[in-house]
Amino acid sequence: MGEQTFNIADDNLEQHIVTLFEKLECLRRDANSNDTNLSGRVPARLEVRTLSLWKAVVAECAASFLYVFIVCGAAGGAGVGASASAVLLSTALASGCAIATLTLCFAHISGAHVNPAVSAALCVRRRVSPLRAALYVAAQCGGAIAGAAAIYG
């Protein structure tokens, strides 16, 4: 392919570049301002009534249950005479595979936070509402306790 040449005057080109950067700066500023405010969010008294919230809470509980059940089961089931490195390897592989699978399964329902620290961090960053974060944390703790109880029992 041959070279292409543009017949634009130098002073006109500089003006176009400056205009382009000004537009990009305005777009960046608008995107940042939309991230920080909570406009467009549903009030808590209305959010409690939505089915999607309760589906997400149940999904977080199930995801935490499965994660704790799989990882604790892998650590406990590595074998009685197994070396420490075998237990660590099986736990690490189970943890990685479990979190990858659970994220794929539950991301479209609840975001697949699985960990209460993730839910709290997203609440602080205003990515989820405080009500949703509190319900997620309660569901995750309940699911983790149930998963540990299932392994213990």
From TrEMBL:
GO terms for cellular component: plasma membrane. PANTHER family: AQUAPORIN TRANSPORTER (PTHR19139), NEUROGENIC PROTEIN BIG BRAIN (PTHR19139:SF268). GO terms for molecular function: water channel activity. InterPro entries: Aquaporin-like (IPR023271), Aquaporin_transptr (IPR034294), MIP (IPR000425). SUPFAM superfamilies: Aquaporin-like (SSF81338). Pfam families: MIP. Belongs to the MIP/aquaporin (TC 1.A.8) family. It is a multi-pass membrane protein. It comes from the Eukaryota. It is found in: Membrane. This is Neurogenic protein big brain. Gene3D superfamilies: Glycerol uptake facilitator protein. Keywords: Membrane, Transmembrane, Transmembrane helix, Transport. Its main location: membrane. The chain crosses the membrane at residues 57-80, 86-112, 133-152.
